[in-house]
Write a structure and sequence with these properties.
The relative contact order is 0.21. Helix 1 packs antiparallel against helix 3. The chain is α+β, with helices and mostly antiparallel strands. The longest helix has 13 residues. Helices cover 24% and strands 36% of the residues. It has a single domain, classed as Diaminopimelate Epimerase, Chain A, domain 1 (Roll). Strands 1, 2, 3, 4, 5, 6, 7, 8, 9 and 10 form a ten-stranded mixed sheet that branches.
């Protein structure tokens, strides 16, 4: 069964350097791991997500983070997940979403984070709208998902995907 949702209006704000450095430390990453074309940002589409894009897909694949320190930082900053992405093509992102505030290591499919990513790309003028892209998530944990994202010129972001019963 395919499901779609439209987010609330999106917004973004810069992530302060201290929070960024703390997140990178929890992820065991460095600033040089990040993709300069997609600057770090906090993005909102109903919940706040920290968006960090990496240069190398291996960085994403080898994710091994410090659960408790990351949860503490996320709770303090009001973040739901970290939207960690690698852009394979203009319209295809690979994502991992640490979710320690939810009590689990990683969410295999995060529509809210995909919507926040779409809003970030539009609001930061990193894409021409309307724009569509896909997010592949959950592959590294054996639960692959594909989220389709439609980014209109304004308003909410539409995310779609196929759901399965557990």
């Amino acid at each position: 069964m395919e499901a779609s949702l439209r987010s609330v209006a999106t917004r973004q704000e810069p992530v302060d350097e201290g929070t960024l450095q703390e997140a990178l430390k929890c992820l065991n990453w460095s600033r040089s791991d990040l993709d300069d074309e997609l600057p770090p940002s906090k993005a909102y589409a109903g919940a706040w997500h920290l968006i960090l894009a990496v240069r190398d897909p291996a960085t994403l694949l080898q994710l091994d983070y410090q659960f408790d320190p990351l949860r503490t930082m996320m709770e303090r900053e009001g973040l739901t997940t970290l939207q960690l992405v690698w852009r394979e093509q203009d319209d295809l992102f690979h994502s991992r979403n640490p979710f320690p505030v939810g009590g689990i290591l990683e969410d295999p499919a995060t529509g809210a984070a995909a919507a926040a990513l779409g809003g970030y790309l539009r609001d930061a003028q990193l894409v021409e709208v309307p724009f569509e892209f896909q997010v592949r998530q959950g592959e590294a944990i054996g639960m692959p998902s594909l989220i389709k994202v439609e980014v209109p010129p304004d308003g909410g972001i539409v995310v779609s995907g196929v759901a399965r019963e557990l």
